[in-house]
Amino acid sequence: MNSLQLALRVLRVDRRTRTSAILTAVGVAVATGLVLLLASLPFATQAREQRAEWQTGYHYNTGGRPVMMVGDSKDYFNGQEIDRVDVAVTGNTAGLKLPAGIPKLPAPGEAIVSPALGRILNTTPADQLGDRFGQPVAALGEQALRYPEQLVAYVGHTPDELTGEHPRPASGFPTKEAKPDGLLTLLSWVGIIVLLVPSLVLVASSARLTAARRERRLAAIRLAGATPGQVTSMVASETVLSAGIGALLGLGISPALHGLATFVPWAGGTWLASDFSLPVGLLVLIVVAIPALVVLAGVLGLRRVLRNPLFATGGHSVKPLRWWRLLALPIAGAFFLYAVVTAGHNSSGPSMVLFGLFLLVASAMVVGPWVTSAVGGTFVRMWRRPSSLLAGRRLRNDPKGAYRASAGIVLAVFTGSMALTLLPSFDSLAGGGRPYVDSVLYADVTSTQAKTVVDKANAALARYGQQERALAVDSVYLTQGSGRYQNFERALVMSCADAARLTRLGITAADCAEGTGLYAPYQMNTAGYSVVGEPYGSDPGKPLGNVPMKAYSENSKSDGSYVLDPASVPAGVTPSYTSVIAPTTDANREIVRTALTAAAVGVDIGSLDQHLSGQQTQLDDLRRVTVIGLIAAGVLAGCSAAVATAGSVMDRRRTFGALIAAGTPVRVLSRALRMEAALPALVATIGAGVVGVLVGVGLFSTVNSGSVVLSPWILAPVVLGIGVALLGASVCTPALKRVQAEPLADE
Fold it and tell me: Residue ranges of the domains in the chain?
């Protein structure tokens, strides 16, 4: 009888071995499915970007004779982002190959829109949205969209309408391979580690269900004359059966997991089912590698059986854990602190910080069992009930086994606490944008375009019956000094009255005075300054002269720009850029945006709320990923704790059977098991949570010197740890009753 036949025979006759094999297969299936899903995320983002390559003008082919002019910009409607591509045909497009999902090139005055944008156009007045694009004549297919809900407009123009710096000549649509999203790629690797660890712990806990019985069986076979190679081959065959079936099951459930992932938004939208695909080679590698790791772990676990004779496997003495284990965490913490403090002073700073994080995570595996043993020793010394003494003895005698079930939750709670410390702090930094008030819309154009754009926008506003009017604001720079000691200060060229009405610099109507040419946050000698259009150039500029100036009280949220009256700008200064701005109200904001968009074709129309939308979208994505990861890791860790608890009962079936036969109440043993299952999880949760918060504070200090914002969500890992502890302890009583129901002689 070969090793495989013997493994199959054991599975047929031993119910407990079958249970262990089934749970091992489930654990491998979960691990395989999760890794396949997470490994596909970079490829999913790449597929997304590949479909949307045509939406970025810089990606178009420029080699050969240009046949069209292309420009891309961002538009907004009621807080929703609209990706806009403007095109004007300039040559023969007969041989031009269109990307999938684009039915044709739009003619001047026509637009091809995404289905989602088309639905909005059908229910919105033209002066609020439709007049920005022209007449919709077709719909874009999903193969031309980044995600199904994306709002996209492909707008046609004449060559004369597309002028200035933004449109670019192109000979064809993009053909280069898109790049995956760097942030989601990083998070997918973090997710693989955070979720794979509890999955493999679940596999290990499942294998422990029959650890004692398997060791006795293998030791007996070894004593009967089996060689170490034969014993190893038998265990490998037994493990290959369950792990292989689990890997195939994980491959089978992978499409279902991909289907669920399509509903999770990222970067503004959901996914197509076809996005989640892996190269065949990588898929085969994952399906083979995970069960191979399980088999390797099973084979390595045979060392004691191969060394010791029959019945010696259960009688080995437990070596006490040394105190030096406790030093691993402070040493790793000290290195991380050093890496954080010196991160900004050398090029290898980020790498050192990441290595410090790795050391902190690794130190948990060293410190955790020692802390578990110390807790057990405390219970032994201070016990008041028999259950406390039994639990303490178990934690003291097998701290590694008791801590093993909590290993997955340690990593999850550490990562979650770190993320929940960083996210609110980053959220408090969200902001920035232009110096204009929130209600102002602005468009950056060339100085030669400014007058035409203002005239067109104001004509449209008058046609729509609006009182607001657009105006052009040039940007120049005040400079003094020379060489490396030369400094530049930006100045907005506008009247004081307009600055008080339209900016958030801090200038008020009371600050405006007749004849004043410069307004600055502090008093300054204007005679020592020159005015240039471009900063950091070779132009020495024109002397500003003795221009009357006045200081204003700067708003803490402003960017400190100066305001220079148009009459005080020296002759011959060409502005670096010009912004066409227009005030709005809540009632007419979209109408004013429509007027500006039609006047400044292919130019982003911005405002503060749109400036913040990208930041908020990314923060929302990170919050969502953190919550999903914590929940998944918590469920896996809870299942691992439950299986480990059941395995602990089965491992000590003889002991518990003897105690029950001697009259020990099941409730006492059950209470002892609940304590030994819950305590490691709680200790791991509290410790990992505290360390995660401290690490989050350290990481935040590398990007900002401000104070950290702590939100109530930081308590979520504590709740997660309590849930894991309760789930692990819930199987104690059923497992003990099963032991009570079976004859002790069966063992």
Answer: 1-52+179-316, 56-170, 329-433+609-747, 441-605
